[in-house]
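Continuing the batch. This is chain 6 of the set; chains 1 through 5 are on the previous pages. Same settings as before, nothing changed between runs. Recording input and output for traceability.
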Amino acid sequence: MAAHVVWKYRESAEQEPDQCATLVQFSNGKLTNSENVEFQLHKNIHKNNPRKKNQLILSAETDRLTYVGNNFGPSALKCNSLCKYFVGVLNENTGKMEVHNAQLFNMQPFFPGDSVAEGDTNEKEASYREKMDSLIEAFGTIKQKHALNSRRLNQVGNETLQEAVTKAAENIIDKKGISALANEATQSQFESAFLPPCHADADKPEDVYKFEDIISTTEYQAIKPCCEPLKISTAEDILKLAETGNYSTFVLESLKSAPQDEKSRDHEINCLFYLQILIKLHNFKKHEFKHKGSLGSDVADVVKNSLMKKFTVVTYNNGRVQHIIPISMKAKIVAYIIALALHINNFQTDLTYLQQDLKISENRILDVARAMGLKVAKRKVNIHGGIAEDHRVATLSLPLIVQNKVHNRKRKKMA
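Output for chain 6:
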């Protein structure tokens, strides 16, 4: 004979949310043994606030991880507001089942020290990390509080160290000039953190600053589909390109003298496109450069990631990781631009055009060129209107010119 069961719904008008049955699900697995888990339910202390009085936070601590779930905010399950859950308790002796209200919590692992996403949009001033820290300070175990204190000390130490390194590098550039890089290059046989990898003992100019050390094979392949706007040949097309204001004088002048051979021309255009990206990266102001997306949608992600790794410094501000371009990194970009320009123009390039495009002083770009062991000379260049200007030209010739001491600029003699 089939068993007969009667169920009864236990509902109370005054039933608080924390008195409902609690159902939990773990985002990364299933709970096999509940005896080794310590659950704690925390209720919002603002009982008079109708928006906050029903907010609950459930924490579960195991031997390996701590899990946290709540019934409010963006991490809460949407089904709690769309569905109603019940839990039935069957009395096998009487055959009656009592049905109670229930709510579901999604338990997610919490890793002290890891960065997490921002929290509730209604409290934009406090990040998710800050709210979790406040929760640990109020309700956390001794172990969690120790981990919180250690993370905060490490964060302060990292920020202080990063700030000191950045300021020291900028002081060298500002007070002593980039010519101080020449000493560094000499002492380390042209190996500098601010210069491209240099092979001073090379037999050919193209092997001193190798092309693959400036543009990796992966980057070179990634920029090929983006170079179509530069694949022009007539003076009218170049003039139209100049009117857009998106390209530097060096790039436009180089297009005028680009080789006629299709393979060589395509290679030079690819190099010019990459050089234009470097110029754009160098000229970013602090408020303009926020993330790699600032480089534009026409730059492949693999190129963006490489530039961020090579030419930016990671800092920590208000608990967030940020990338900045300090003066020392701008000097490094200038060096890579000069090295790439040498490959484009048969190892003799016009520094004056680059200086104007980079919006830096002549002395600064000359210091970088000398630090790279280049020979610098003056040359008359005809510009628009038949006017001749004195331009600085850098040449890579072997052997490299080693700066035995910091280049001292000549002082004008008083009459």
